[in-house]
Amino acid sequence: MSAVTAPALDPVTLLGELIRFNTVNPPGNERPAAEHLAAVLRDAGFEVSLYAATEQRPNVVARLRGTDDGPTLCLLSHIDTVLADPDAWSHDPWSGELIDGFVWGRGALDMKSQTAAEVAAAASLARSGWRPAHGDLLVVCVVDEEVGGALGAEWICEHHPDSVRCDMLLNEGGGWRAELDGGQALYGVGCAEKGVFRFKVITRGVAGHASIPRMGENALLAMAPLLARLAERQPTMQLVQEPRALLEALGESTEDPAGAVARLRGRDPMLALVVEPMCGVSLAPTRILASEKINVIPSRAELRVDCRVPPGLGEVEARAAAEEVLGREGYELEFTERVMGNRSPIEGPFMDRIKEWIAANDPGALCAPSVLPGFTDSRTFRAAFPDLVAYGFFPHRHMTIAGTWPLIHGADERIDVRDLQFATRFYGDIAQAVLGGDAREERR
Questions:
Q1: What is the model's pTM?
Q2: What sign for the dihedral angle of Cα 269, 270, 273, 279?
């Protein structure tokens, strides 16, 4: 009696199921979603373990072993989400409904869609009977990314490193698509993430009774010109290798990066909005503190600035950028966080496989390195495994960057089902391209 090939797992159905698990973090409560994913992968033939720092928040680690030694490819995602205000949405953010060709709900873009695509691709391969010819396929679904990953990627890389050790990794942070002049498409491959060098700006004065405004010296008013300078400009751009390659792919000169971004703004405003912070140190004032009492003129005011620094640059460049914008007098500057950026090579065999797949599945499209202005769990894996090549790549073909970025962490988050299916094909194909092996009939 001949074997029957198991049907492929539908990523659209799986995404709807994942969205219906409310994993807003905090508190997260990812266990029901994690157990569901573990069951799907276990039933497909993966070896599955749950590793948890706390009972209700386990991380899923699933391995499909190859028939010979070789590299490990990891498909990484996180299953927690940010909050959602149902009153601001057109549809219930935890419905996972399929409406007009889109799956709606919190996590539809960030990033339960990638979880669904990666798990569906991996499970479908395993159910078909495929096994890597060399090396292992690893699927890792972690918790707690939205608040830093202390119970997720950071914890598992510290306490169970061998369970997630890998040579190649695909995660969030890239795969966005922009349509350039003449209709040509460009995909960003997330090769790097900016570092975090947050600081406080402190101004000082003399306290006094607020009923006499000219009494004392108001430290808060001394902050006003500094805020105005931060509103007027960003520091001079400093191109590192990734944005340099991206601007070149966009047909822009790198001799004058500010001019290149200005021209790009005329071509594609949303793309320019994303590219600009890749091109140097960025400064964003986010909090200000002064008097603790309404009737006291403050003798001290403190401004918190979120400073992001390109990979390869650090505190020296961050301080120089701050002084360029703020000047050097009239305030004190004190760093509160120092986290270097992280990166993987912009060229190499793994990148070649990604480019080859895009060339075959979106003819004429380009791929170029990009820098994520924020950070993902890739930073933790790159730090834990220094030889790892990690890229952010979840390819969209139908929703461009102008359509996706405004929805991430926003109301009415949704994904085109064609993009979900497109990405699922990518993960299945890339696993076979880098690990070898052929799908065969499932053995019963």
A1: 0.94
A2: negative
Q: Decide the pairing of beta strands 102-104 and 47-52.
A: unpaired
The values of phi and psi at residue 108, to 5°, are -60, -25
With vertex at residue 242, the alpha carbon angle to CA 179 and CA 147, rounded to the nearest 5 degrees, is 90
Q: Are the CB atoms for 30 and 149 separated by under 8 Å?
A: no
Beta bridge partners of 72: 136
* In contact, 59 and 52? CB cutoff 8 Å: yes
Tell me how far apart the alpha carbons of residues 109 and 181 are, in angstroms, rounded to a whole number: 26
243-278 pLDDT, tens digit each: 999 999 999 999 999 999 999 999 999 999 999 999
User: In sequence order, which residues have a C-beta less than 8 Å from that of residue 257 and are 6 or more positions away?
Assistant: 237, 239, 243, 247, 279, 280
For 223, the enclosing helix (H) or strand (E) is: helix 219-232
C-alpha to C-alpha distance for 218 and 16, rounded to whole angstroms: 55
Distance CA 444, CA 438 (A): 18
In 3D space, the residue among 144, 135, 33, 228 whose CA is nearest the CA of residue 434 turns out to be 135
CA 392 to chain centre: 7
Backbone angles phi, psi at 305, to 5 degrees: -120, 125
* Angstrom distance (rounded) from CA 40 to CA 35: 9
Structure confidence by residue, pLDDT tens digits, 69-91: 999 999 999 999 999 999 999 99
Tell me, what amino acid is at 261? V
Q: How far is CA 147 from CA 31, 143, 322, 340, 381, in A?
A: 17, 10, 26, 18, 16
Residue 164, CA distances (Å) to 44, 67, 180, 437 in order: 19, 19, 38, 22
Q: What's the CA angle centered on 390, arms 48 and 45, to 5 degrees?
A: 20
**DSSP element (H, E) containing 222:** helix 219-232
Q: Which helix (H) or strand (E) holds 356?
A: helix 349-361
**Model confidence over 119-169: pLDDT tens digits?**
999 999 999 999 999 999 999 999 999 999 999 999 999 999 999 999 999
Residue 77, CA distances (Å) to 102, 153, 354, 425, 443 in order: 21, 10, 18, 17, 29
Strands 58-65 and 366-372: unpaired
State both tokens at 263: 């021209």
Query: Does residue 264 sit in helix, strand or coil?
Result: helix
Q: How many CB atoms lie within 10 A of CB 369?
A: 25
Between CA 144 and CA 79 the distance in angstroms is 8
Its sign, for the CA torsion 82, 87, 91, 92, is positive
Which residue, among 322, 315, 312, 351, has the nearest Cα to 193 in the 3D structure? 312
Q: How many helices (H) and strands (E) does the chain have?
A: 14, 20
